[in-house]
Amino acid sequence: MAVFVVVFLMSLGICICTALLKWNEVRYRKKGLPPGTMGWPLFGQTTDFLKEGPNFMLNQRARYGGFFKTHILGCPTIVSMDPEVNRYILLNEGKGLVPGYPQSMLDILGKNNIAAVHGSAHKKFRGAFLSITNPTMIKDHLLLTIDEFMKSHLSNWDGKIIDIQEKTKEMALLSSLKQIAGDDADLVREAFKPEFQKLVLGTISLPINIPGTNYHIGLQARKNIIKIWAKVLQKRHNSSSTYQDMLDFLIKSEDPKYKLNDEEIIDQIITILYSGFETVSTTSMMAAKYLHDHPRALQELREEHLAIRKEKGSEDPITWNEYKSMRFTRAVIFETSRLATVVNGVLRKTTQEMELNGYVIPEGWRIYVYTREINYDPILYPEPFTFNPWRWMDKSLESHNYFLAFGGGGRLCPGKEFGIAEISTFLHYFVTRYRWEEVGGDELIKFPRVTAPNGLHIRVSTY
Ligand code: HEM
C-alpha cells in the first residue's frame, strides 16, 4: 500500500512540475520571440544559470543559437552571444535599449548614477565624469597621487604572507578615495570602509526592504555614506583653499553643461568608487596570479619596469611619459581581463516593443549582452586559454570591434584609462620591489564573479 502512495505522490509531483513548466512556456509564447526555454514560474532558469555558469549559456546556444530567450534573475531575458548583435545593441541605446541593471543596484547607487539614466541626463553625468577621469587629468593631476598611494600601499610586504585579494581590494578602494578627496580621504576612510562593503552587498541582493536583508542594510549604508560626503562637501564649500582632487574639480567646474549640485556630486563619488572597485581589484589580483604562473611574462614585465626605475631615484614618481611607455604592462592588463573575464557582459532593457535580430522583443524585457565567449574565440585569439600578453603588442587588437571588456558605444567605460593607470602603477611597485610565490591550496571561482572565497595567499620577499 505504502509503495502505491509513494508512486502516486511521485506521479502527481511530476504532473504538477510538467504543468507548471508548460504553463510558463505558454505564458511567454508570443509571436516573434526568439527560441529558448523559460523554466519555472517566478524563478525561471536562475538556478541552472548560477549552478552551471558559462556552461548553461553554451548549452542554450548549442540548442537555440546565439540569440535566445530565458528567464533569469527575476526577469524574462534575451541572451545575445552574437558579436554583431552585441555591438549593434551597445551602439543603439537611442533606439530604446537602455541600461537594464537590477532594481537593488539602481536604488542603492542613487538616481543620479550613470547606469540609472539615459538621454540628456546621461550626457551630463558622463561629461562630468569624463572631465575628471580623462587622460589630461591623469597626466596633470591623478598620476602623481596614484603613484604616491601605491608606493605607500606596497611598502613593508617583505617576509610576509599576504592575501593579495584583500590587498588589491583595499588598493582599488583607497586609491580612488585618495583621488576623490585628497587628504580629506584620510578623515573619512575608517567610517566609509564598512559602509561601502554593505553598499556593495546591497546592490547584488534581492530588493526586499525589511530589516536584516542585505538590501535594507545597503540602503542604510547609502544614507550613512551620503552623510559622510555631505560633511566633506560642506567643509570644501566653507574653505577658500584649492585642492588638486576630483572633488575640487567637480565643485568648481566652470562648464555649465556639466555643473552638478551636491546631491549629484555625491552620487558621482559613489559611482566612481563602486564602478572602479571590483573591476580594478580583480584585474590586479588576476594579473598577479597569471604572472606568478608564467615566469617568462613576469620577466618581460619586470624588465620593462626595472628599465624605468634605473633612470631615477628610488622615491621618484613615475612620469606620464614613463607610464605611456609601459607597452607590455598594458598588454598584460588586456590579456588578464580577456582570460579572466572580469566582466561577463552588460545588461540592457527595452523601453518599447522592438525588432532585434529579426525577432520582436516585448517592452521591459532584459537583454543580456553576454560577451564572455568572444574572449575565447580561437579565430580572434589563437590558443585562447593560454595567457599570452604578447598578442596585445599589436595595438590594433585593443580597438577590435568585438573586444568589449570595457563595454562599447556611448557607454564605453569612462574609467578605462584611469583604471589602467592604477593597475599599471600597482604592478610597477609590485614587480620592482618584490618576488612572490603562492602559498597554495586557495580556491579560485570564475563565475558569476571572479573571486577567491578564502583569499589568495602569497609569500612575499624583496626582489
Ligand atoms: C579594469 C577595469 C575596468 C573594467 C574591466 C570596466 C568595465 C566596464 C564595462 C564593461 C562598462 C560598460 C557597462 C555598460 O555598458 O553597461 C563600464 C562602464 C562604466 N565604468 Fe568601467 N571598468 C573598469 C574600470 C572603471 C573605473 C576605474 C571606473 C571609475 C573611475 C569605471 C567607471 C565606469 C562607469 C561610470 C561606467 C558607466 C558608463 C556609462 O554608463 O556611460 N570603470 N566599465
Automatic annotation (TrEMBL):
The keyword Metal-binding applies. One of its GO terms (cellular component) is membrane. It is found in: Membrane. Residues 1-19 form the signal peptide. Heme binds at residue 413. One of its GO terms (molecular function) is iron ion binding. Keywords: Heme, Iron, Membrane, Metal-binding, Monooxygenase, Oxidoreductase, Signal, Transmembrane, Transmembrane helix. Pfam families: p450 (PF00067). Its cofactor is heme. InterPro entries: Cyt_P450, Cyt_P450_CS, Cyt_P450_E_grp-I, Cyt_P450_sf. PANTHER family: CYTOCHROME P450 26 (PTHR24286), CYTOCHROME P450 85A1 (PTHR24286:SF169). Belongs to the cytochrome P450 family. This is Cytochrome P450. It comes from Protea cynaroides. The lineage of its organism: Eukaryota, Viridiplantae, Streptophyta, Embryophyta, Tracheophyta.
